[in-house]
């Protein structure tokens, strides 16, 4: 995932981009054409705020930060395709973000309606939820935030809700936790929409329930605070108005707060005999736990079968027991039975349930599943209900009353209404503004030359839309633009679009819902518009998703006060026994998310400057599995540092060994040993020892293990451990070089360097060049032009035969497997090369038993 250009590279960046860089380099070694792009998610409030604080334009701030971060990325050897670079705040990019908005607008999927927002009355601006503190105050002005209804732009993602939910099942290479988070966010629910009649001329309300089987146990309904009926009653009920004002500050879905509405009751729409029910005896409440923007802003309350309803009922109607209608098939404990929230069971009356109904007619004995269907059918017969599918997900609000974002390409005309800006007038450029525009209100509203325009439809005076788009609009399609970043006529051309979808997408799990969901939606929409042929891929943007864990820093706190301690307040003379300098007390040590307030941040450029990029990269990968939280401990980096030093020393040692230090009885064959089957009929003259064969096979075993760690398990920490083990094996072989073929040692070292090059590119390239130059190659080609080793280990044709004479072990012979089927004369000839056997066989042989691995001679 591309970063926001803050100007400072942090360890989280280093982790995710090291992982992607390793994969990209590895895939290239395996012959793939790899696109490994980089870009900048440059719009957004952080840049605007930073620019305001410094009294500069956000564009200047952003460009400076991008330059800094590019330099830092090159510092840790990230091999990005910079020629594909995108910047979401560049007109060349947001022209196409605007075009995608207009495509949505044309299809009726971008629309404007009133919505409740957080309003800062002092700064006169809209605030995001995270800009409102726990006391309901604005983060900037400190004013008490108000709720207001303003016209806002929405994107109709709910039209794709079913497809987004259904296609989660085809994402086989996505983490289950991410798919579960999206599934829960989409919140597809099958159930019944029920019409609840109200008394006193209030008409009716609709509720949705996934448990229509519990209808006859309904004891109350609850309406949202902003439900039209509630707002109407609040005009004449001061107590209700006061309750609403207080309850609006409650942001707790488990809240049991509620107010029983006066002079209004409800009825269960049909009775147990399936007749329309005219008895209005169900109280009606308003409660903050009911969401006005979900369903119809009304819910039915069944305390006997829902935990929250039960708690609400106990508080507001403590004298009335919670009615039940569903009984478990198997009797549970009394505590578990009340309320009974199980989704299986049988409908029963008072004869079975202590708080059951007197009579439930034909429904008695029906299973939950049967009752759900039957009740829905009977409601439909009276036009009082119907089967329905509802979704928790709401349409996507993209309006931002901010400057630093892509302008929404709409013109408002009194005669024509909202009118799309014509394609030939895109992009609608963001005007450069002076600092005073960033005072109160929407900055763009104050730029007359931007706002005042002509209607593209009728030519009359009009006003340009001054809201900018949510930055998630920018990031919902950037991966398309990487493939065709220089295209001036389309967001992506048809030929470039053939490269979609993305094979591997890496990013934090915190993006599981918003960014990833919006990207899936826009990708499906663009496929439906014909911008790319997504049908063979279920119109999904990312084949494989990897969510790396966060990087946590070591945090010191005072055990008495809980205050976070700065590093210079802790004596680290003995790293294993730190002490607070002022008190001599041992601090509490934890690993927590890095932040300035906790003084636990670590600058990766400092670490790279001290140890080098390769060591830092290796330590980052070795410290934890990819998906786990990584507790950053720079003091443990010495292990990776020592390993790379051993690799360098190993190359020097190999280069310094004279020819006579190696095994001398090597074949004169011109064939490369990497292409032979040892001791085969094809190359009978090449006979490696068991030690040589073991090294040959070990190199290939670890090469395959590393490849599997990247291609299959994504366990990058084991890559480093495998490379360390292979280094140790090769070091041992060099120490006993007289047992090994020189070509085998050199080729094994080369393969070690190739295997480690995706992780440690600089060290690998340097060692590779030095080795080839020592072999007489004046201008060695880059190691990254080599092929990753994929040869299979070779099974030796040599086996050990235990030799027995008259039942006693006489020695061991290493010979071809075919010895077990050779003639007796051939066997005697070969076993006689063992002195003990030759000295023992002096008389006639009575019997010779030959099996694989064993020769038994009876004299």
From TrEMBL:
UniProt xrefs under CDD domains: LeuRS_core
PANTHER family: LEUCINE--TRNA LIGASE, MITOCHONDRIAL (PTHR43740:SF2), LEUCYL-TRNA SYNTHETASE (PTHR43740)
Cellular component GO terms, alphabetical: mitochondrial matrix
One function term, GO molecular function aspect: leucine-tRNA ligase activity
UniProt family annotation: Belongs to the class-I aminoacyl-tRNA synthetase family.
Keyword ATP-binding belongs to the record: yes
GO biological process: leucyl-tRNA aminoacylation; mitochondrial translation
Aminoacyl-tRNA synthetase class Ia domain ranges (all copies): 393-552
Principal location listed in the UniProt entry: mitochondrion
Gene3D superfamilies from the UniProt entry: HUPs (3.40.50.620), Isoleucyl-tRNA Synthetase, Domain 1 (1.10.730.10)
Signal peptide from the UniProt entry: none
Catalytic activity, reaction form: tRNA(Leu) + L-leucine + ATP = L-leucyl-tRNA(Leu) + AMP + diphosphate
Ranges of residues in domain Methionyl/Leucyl tRNA synthetase: 2-133
Xref: InterPro entries: aa-tRNA-synth_I_CS (IPR001412), aa-tRNA-synth_Ia (IPR002300), Leu-tRNA-ligase (IPR002302), Leu_tRNA-synth_edit (IPR025709), M/V/L/I-tRNA-synth_anticd-bd (IPR013155), Methionyl/Leucyl_tRNA_Synth (IPR015413), Rossmann-like_a/b/a_fold (IPR014729), tRNAsynth_Ia_anticodon-bd (IPR009080)
Subcellular localization, as worded in the UniProt entry: Mitochondrion matrix
Assigned keywords, A-Z: Aminoacyl-tRNA synthetase, ATP-binding, Ligase, Nucleotide-binding, Protein biosynthesis
Name of the featured protein: leucine--tRNA ligase
Domain Leucyl-tRNA synthetase editing residue range list: 183-379
NCBIfam families in the cross-refs: leuS_bact
Pfam families associated with the record: Anticodon_1 (PF08264), tRNA-synt_1 (PF00133), tRNA-synt_1_2 (PF13603), tRNA-synt_1g (PF09334)
Domain annotation Methionyl/Valyl/Leucyl/Isoleucyl-tRNA synthetase anticodon-binding: ranges: 695-798
Documented EC number(s): 6.1.1.4
